[in-house]
Backbone:
DNA sequence: CGCGGGCCATACCGAATGGGTATTGGACGA
DNA sequence: TCGTCCAATACCCATTCGGTATGGCCCGCG
């Protein structure tokens, strides 16, 4: 269970369909579908019921949804806290992230 | 910032040295060292000060430490809640995780 | 003062992860 | 029955990631 898994899960839960969630997350449907399946496998139980027109949250899924959102928001908090806390000792304006061994530095554009 | 990053960070913070943390996490030192460096790069600021005998938490590091532990514990909670909640609709005893596309199913032995 | 042992960082390589395209199969509505 | 929307699978390639080997630094001890 990684944070990416949780984001994927939340997106699918909220969109009610892998395809739509995939568009929302800017990935294609199959990887996302696999990710959900992998998450369910890891947890040892299904989170969704596959219907003809999408994915419907199961009980376990509901249980997870709240917690997942909670966790993701804490992560966001941590990120911004760190940003705020930014370099009280030795600052360095963002923009130069000197990531030696690639770390994509992704930007979230709001389309 | 992934959960693995956070675990790594916490381990290093608590052990005070990458090498010891690496042993604790059952990985070798270089990947862990890289992971910390990557995390710092991603956050845009150092979390540790490298001294001759280990890693010393910086302010930003302290800030992160609490939050990281909090997040990790929530994740654990989610896991056990899911386990408890286990398959009220359609059970399936653990042991068969049918993970199609490898998901290592790691077991944490307590050495 | 040189040697040994602790530490972290880098270089390099091979295995595993992960995303993308193409495709299949089921369910529904026109 | 056909067209559409859905998720799952098969396959392939790029990227990520961990391990080994190595280097450089700093300290304490003989």
Residues:
């Amino acid at each position: 269970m990684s944070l990416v898994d949780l984001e994927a899960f939340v997106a699918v839960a909220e969109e009610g369909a892998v395809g739509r969630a995939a568009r929302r997350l800017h990935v294609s449907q199959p990887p996302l579908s696999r990710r959900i399946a992998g998450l369910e496998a890891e947890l040892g139980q299904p989170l969704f019921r596959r219907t003809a027109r999408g994915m419907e949250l199961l009980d376990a899924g509901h249980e997870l949804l709240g917690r997942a959102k909670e966790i993701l928001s804490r992560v966001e908090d941590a990120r911004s806290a760190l940003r705020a806390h930014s370099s009280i000792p030795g600052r360095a304006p963002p923009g130069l992230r000197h990531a030696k061994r690639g770390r994509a530095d992704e930007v979230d554009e709001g389309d």
Notes: Residues 27-28, 30-31, 34-35, 51-53, 100-101 of chain A lie near DNA strand C (CB under 10 Å from a C1'). Residues 3-82 of chain A form a domain with the Arc Repressor Mutant, subunit A fold (CATH 1.10.10.10). The first strand of chain A starts at residue 48 and ends at 51. Strands of chain A lie at 48-51, 54-57.
